Amino acid sequence: MSFDPATLVYDANGLIPCIAQQDGTGEILMMAWMNADAVAKTLETKRVTYWSRSRQSFWIKGETSGHTQELIDLRVDCDQDCLLAVVNQEGPACHTNRRSCFYTSVTDGEEVELMKPMK
Amino acid sequence: MSFDPATLVYDANGLIPCIAQQDGTGEILMMAWMNADAVAKTLETKRVTYWSRSRQSFWIKGETSGHTQELIDLRVDCDQDCLLAVVNQEGPACHTNRRSCFYTSVTDGEEVELMKPMK
Q1: What does the alpha-carbon distance between residue B27 and residue A4 come to, in Å, rounded to a whole number?
Q2: B59 belongs to a structural domain
Q3: Where is the Phosphoribosyl-AMP cyclohydrolase domain (chains A, B) (predicted)?
Q4: Quick check: B98 contacting A, CB < 8 Å?
Q5: Do the Cβ atoms of B95 and A78 come within 8 Å?
Q6: Fewer beta carbons below 10 Å: N end or C end of chain B?
């Protein structure tokens, strides 16, 4: 069946969450949001493109930092309301310079830092 | 630092997205939503508990189906607005009886089914 970004289920702001996962390792890098145009651009360019809620503009991941995400595969969930982008992440995915945004564990009621910023 | 679910960033409905990932394999199983009480219950019971938006009630994953998620680790992202639950998933995570909800790939503009329902 042919895929149309318009068939996805967007929230009241026209956005759908997208999880980015490193190809091969399975590491979860980040979660950000896309609108229908960002989904289309991501598929066309193979450069993962989000919608920045703070800037209200397209956010081609790594465009300024160089920490790009090359799209390997885009997957849709059973309810069509969440996306999974399997990617090749160049360097850190997180704005804190860590590989992943999910670097804080809640362990025995305490926040524990699992990884340091990359050099 | 001690963790308090109230410090997370919730949306206008008081919800935060939570990604469930199988421990060890890195497989992404599903994404669903939690409110602050669901986060607290998940940490207390080690049984992953979401907030069902359709039923407007707690959803202890697997309570009726038996397809439970045992919490191995809960992680918070850099913006405190997304959670990652590393879990041991019993059987299928998806209501379609597939292991993961992300069973549809968009490949060359077509939807491709990556996995079949479990027996």
Answers
A1: 26
A2: yes
A3: 30-103
A4: yes
A5: yes
A6: C
Please report where in the chains the tokens 């397809």 appear, as a residue: B67
The ipTM estimated for the assembled molecules is 0.96
CATH number of the domain enclosing B19: 3.10.20.810
Of the candidates B3, B96, B111, the beta carbon closest to that of A3 is on: B111
In a domain, A38, yes or no: yes
A19 CB within 8 Å of a chain B CB: yes
Q: For B1-119, where are the E strands, in sequence order?
A: 16-22, 28-34, 49-52, 57-60, 69-76, 83-89, 104-107, 110-113
Residue of B nearest to A12 (CA): B12
Residue numbers of chain B with a pLDDT score lower than 50: none
Residue A20's domain comprises: 8-90
What stretch of H or E contains A42?
A: helix A36-45
Of A74, A82, A104, the CB nearest to B106: A74
| Count: domains in chain B | 1
Q: How many helices (H) and strands (E) does chain B have?
A: 1, 8
CA-to-CA distance for B9 and B71, rounded, in angstroms? Answer: 21
B110 within some domain? no
B103 Cβ under 8 Å from any chain A Cβ: yes
User: CB of A95 within 8 Å of any CB in chain B?
Assistant: yes
